[in-house]
TrEMBL record:
Higher taxonomy: Bacteria, Bacillati, Bacillota, Bacilli, Bacillales
PANTHER family linked: ATP DEPENDENT LON PROTEASE FAMILY MEMBER (PTHR10046)
Originating species: Bacillus infantis NRRL B-14911
GO BP field: protein catabolic process; proteolysis
Source domain of life: Bacteria
Key words, A-Z: Membrane, Transmembrane, Transmembrane helix
GO MF terms, alphabetically ordered: ATP binding; ATP-dependent peptidase activity; serine-type endopeptidase activity
Record's protein name: Lon proteolytic domain-containing protein
Amino acid sequence: MYKTGVIAGIMTFLFYIVFLLLYLLEVINEYAFVFMLFLLLVILLNLWFVFRQKRKNRIQITVSAFLLFLLFCYELPLLLVALSSPPSHVAYAYQEPNEALKGSGIFSVGVAEFTLKNQNSEQDAKKILAAQGVDVLSVAEVDHKVRYDSKNRQLLKWLHLQKEPLLQMEENAAEYLGKEDDWLRRFIQQPDIAGNSAGLSLALSGLIKEGLLENRLPVAVTGAINEHGEVSYVGLIKEKILIAERSGFLYLIIPSENAEEAAAIQKESSRKIEIIDVSHVDEAVEAIGRLNDGG
């Protein structure tokens, strides 16, 4: 009987995967995807009543219905995404690099983000923002995969399984430094700060404030960190390279996980800014030391 239940669960999950792929490939929309799960759930419940006297069939249907019910609940928030009139495009624009600790020479490189609704093309979205004086670097269409990722992140927040990236960044930086000073709180509270990519710059700024690091050069920095100082991947690296270069920086420190992507971008567009990749705050400290020594 155990084997029967496992097979029923696998078949149900495969059915779910097929329709999830159809949604992600934009063959069907959110409504059709969730409706198909609901329809199969109704069919299984009816079959349970028809075959409730047959133990083997009852077990198969019960396992399938229970699994499908969980999957249906997991995907139901997609309807909220659809009903909220989601944006059609997201534009990424120039944002002035921010020095969290004045006089440190460590500048966090961020990207301004604008969402637009009901635009027919990326070019139309870019024209609208350009007319408003926004220095647009790139525009991306919001497809089903982006919406699905957004739903998953929101669900994790509702279940308190994931913190807001900005709050997580603040917590990680404070834990790495051993305390949270006023300058760190002020930086986090700025209206144009979002995400977690300023973590590395905050850690370096904190070390300078504590007298554990000296820096006399303007250095652009991007990178998320954990409480141990390990540096991890950040998005929009192409836009950040362009912003750093436009702002006149000679050096940009990025996560090692972005190194391959950054190398391809430099090769493609002949960027002259020197990019230094690090996997830990300690490596960034060493790199800054070498730059200040002229090495």
